[in-house]
Amino acid sequence: MRDDDALAEFVRDRGAALLKHATLLVGSRRGAEDLVQDALVKVFATRRGRVRDLDSLEAYVRRTVLTTFLDSYRRHRRWVKVRHLFADPDIGPPDDDVAGAVDVTAALRTLSPRERACVVLRFYDDLTVPQIADELGLAQGTVKRYLSDATHALAATLGPGVRPEETEVVS
């Protein structure tokens, strides 16, 4: 199977699931589309000629989506520290695209990237704590702490009776 055919088949079969996964991480559909596209480009560029099993490919692409998301957050955090050196003081901050509606997507945006990644992997991908720890390269206790902190933060934002897995994300 040619790589172009494999990519087309993979995106057709698993593209929607990857997009939902990325939307939960990023918080916006547009950003999720960019994230999935970047991950697919990285995977298919580095695995040129070696795309055989589309089932194992999904795990590889999901891992690339997660790594790309965390890397972009780190770059953004470094930029925030120095952007005041380049910013025009006459231009204010951009308007928030959330029009005041409190939903799961907006609540996820309030979490740190690691907390958000843990919540998405736990409640969306239904991974166990040991699996999340292995996926992110963290200790199980650290994952438990991120999940605990994130659950408390989400409960404060969404209300005490709402759990992340009971609420559908609107993009």
Q: Could you give a quick summary of the protein structure above?
A:
The protein has 171 residues and is mainly alpha-helical.
Keyword list:
disordered C terminus, 68% helix, 171 residues, 7 helices, mainly alpha
Written overview of the protein:
The chain is mainly α and 171 residues long. The protein has two domains: 83 residues, no CATH class; 57 residues, Winged helix-like DNA-binding domain superfamily/Winged helix DNA-binding domain (Arc Repressor Mutant, subunit A, Orthogonal Bundle), CATH 1.10.10. 68% of the residues lie in helices and 0% in strands. The radius of gyration is 18 Å and the shape is globular. It starts with a helix and ends in a 13-residue tail after the last helix. The C terminus is likely disordered.
* Arithmetic mean pLDDT: 78
- State the total count of DSSP E strands: 0
Distance between the termini: 34 Å
Name the structural class.
mainly alpha
Oligomer: single chain
Ranges where pLDDT stays below 50 over 5 or more residues in a row are: 93-102, 166-171
What's the SSE blueprint?
Layout: H1 3-26, H2 29-46, H3 54-82, H4 104-109, H5 113-124, H6 129-136, H7 140-158
